[in-house]
Amino acid sequence: MMFKAKILLIGIILTLVITLLLSLLYVRELENGGNIRLREQASTMFKGNKLGIVIPFRERFDELLEFVPHIHSFLKNQDVLHEIFVINQVDQYRFNRGSLINAGFKEIMSSYSMIDYIAMHDVDLFPLNPALDYHYPPTGHVNHIAAPHLHPRYHYASFVGGILLITKEDFIQIDGLSNNYWGWGLEDDEFYLRLKEAKIGIHRPGNLTTGTSNTFRHNHDRTVRKRDMTKCYNQREVTRKRDRHTGLHNVNYFVKKKHELLIDGVPTLVLDIELKCNKTLTPWCLCSEYGLKNTKNLKKGK
Fold first, then answer.
1. How confident is the model at residue 277 (pLDDT cuts 50, 70, 90)?
2. Which residue intervals define the domain Galactosyltransferase N-terminal in the entry (predicted)?
3. CA distances (Å), 68 to each of 5, 53, 84, 267, in order?
């Protein structure tokens, strides 16, 4: 019995010594600049929830170069732990913001378990007012940062686009966004219906000293990048309704490549995503084919 007790005591002492040595090495690494990921993991342990910035993206690299250092500095000033994920659509189909966010969420949750909530964030919307709070949303609510009374362009009551924070549990509960919205717009209006149906409240910033002209900078030139607002096939009819068939559970995509970038020293993960289109269900993922077919039919009619 005495021998076993001695062995146990030695084991406890060794464990304490090893723990102390690792702690000293860790502190020294932090003092010397350390590893970014290690510092963030340590901060998460003591400071709470970590935010994943999810940016649906395509061919707007100049805007991204401005956005990443801006949002990193903004969140650092708020002491918000965060990582930046650019979900880059690289297929031949029309832009699909909803599917990109769904795909990004799945990839983040499978590989970055320390992410507690996400911000669905447009790359061209720069927060300016420091009172815009990017911390964890209130219980039972999403946090709509780009509220209608603050957004430079969209002011209707059901608007939830631009910048919206949601916990991973709530995003899963409402099955993410619809995958039916190819082209520009309306996917966030359908998302609003999902929030209402799930009885998830929408928290919006209040008591700000800024308004629609100076709360955000909208870094978008419509003459250079025109909105893809074309409607073809039966797109208009289908996408004006609540989608009960598609969402996070059945988003169809392939991760072509991952890039770990430093943009002005800020770590940024870019996921090249190829979306898949079921042309029977959503033939409007390529309106060019519709136009070509109609042109041929017109020629035959002549």
1. very high
2. 49-131
3. 57, 10, 8, 9
